[in-house]
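HUMAN: Mind making up another protein with tokenized structure?

ASSISTANT:
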Amino acid sequence: MASTPTSRFAAPGHPPATTTQFRGVRFLHLGTSWVQGAMRLDKPDNIELEYVQMMMMWMLFNDQPKRIAQLGLGSAALTKFCYQRFPHARVDVAELNPNVIDICHAEFGLPSNDERLNVREMDAMDFVLDPANHNSIDVLQVDLYDEDARGPVLDSQEFYQACHDCLTDDGIMTTNVFGEFSNYDKNLQNMELVFDAVVWLPEVHDANIIVIAFKRSPQVDFNVLYERAGDIKRRMNLPAKNWVNGFKSWMQDCQE
């Protein structure tokens, strides 16, 4: 099942951004075999990977965000989706590796910056510590991995506190926790020290676990959530019912 190597962006000072293609899907790598993102060539505006789709589960709680921020660009799937599907929202991205930004423009259909889209080459920690970003972001999506993909690059209590500080009163963070087993507990504990409510969904796609963290704990009515999930499926073609099932399963496990 060898894939076909295609492009390579390798400006010095950062891991090279490379792509492979297999069965109609283009994959992003950072100079290693680890998949950092994907795009189906005949559906370039869809979100291909299941765990990346799950990063959108904040839509169950907020369908009209004004500002969405992304830490870690990946293959730009989330950035493109949010930019296209939420035309009244501002979308900001912090990505440290210029090779990733360049390859996303060239090979993954990332639009140029405009009055709503701002993709910047910068450290995610600098972004969340910037006072200009505090109390201004409705949705923060965090997917920070280097070429080794052993665990999130930023995972300290200080980092998650800064993420919390960037959110509006009802702001939501989704994050991907992947890698060595010890990373899960460390990340979850540091999030729980900061956020009012932290929920993690069942593992999907090669040990990726998606966490949703709330600055202020939401009122949860599963009838309402399933209704919203149906609407998300119809409008966005995302498997939102699975997200609600995972959310419900987590709550039941916590009560046992």
About this structure: The longest helix spans residues 240-255. Helices lie at 50-54, 77-85, 98-107, 124-129, 157-166, 181-192, 222-236, 240-255. The radius of gyration is 17 Å.
